[in-house]
Amino acid sequence: MRRQFFALSLMALLPLPAAAHHPMDGAMPETLWQGFASGIGHPVIGLDHLVFLLAAGVLAAALPRNQAFRAIAGFLAAGMAGLALHMAGIGLGMTEALVAASVLLAGLALLITKCVPAPALLLGFALAGLFHGHAFAEAVIGAEATPIIAYLAGLAVIQGGLMLGAMALARATSAQWLRPAMGAAASLAGLGFLVVALIA
User: Fold this and answer.
1) What is the pLDDT of residue 17?
2) How many CA atoms are closer than 13 Å to the CA of 86, on its beta-carbon side?
3) Which residue, 152, 121, 8, 130, is CA-closest to 58?
4) Could you tell me which of 60, 108, 113, 197 has the fewest CB atoms within 10 Å of its CB?
């Protein structure tokens, strides 16, 4: 199990952040189904987003259930706000680098502390959601309303599902290595993504 986890973690180090924007070969979603499929695909194909979601779920597992749900909901809501800002033409700076930094910080938080205080995690998740959502907007700028709404639904379903799934796994397992292993993987991946984003 550990070998499989570390193999997947090493794959996360591959410099592929641009893939996060092309789950449909770069085509703009034109139908409700294409919008939903694109929303489902973006956080999975984009390894920087995927690693963050898994690390965030493990981070949230250390909190009481209601506070963990609040933090995850805050991430999702802030993501929608970030997407709306981008579609309105409001930039947030070096978004890809900020997304990479969120992966690195999530990994370091897992390594450094046993439990991030709920207010700090809520704020961190909200800020991360803003930048992740802003990056996700690239796929639907110029699309019609129907695929955009479906895209938002797909994003919410897959991101919420991945974070809740990682949280449930972390709560269910008694393996002491899970948190530091996820922290190390996310820290290394985040550093790699950050370097690629800064030199791109």
Assistant:
1) 41
2) 22
3) 121
4) 113
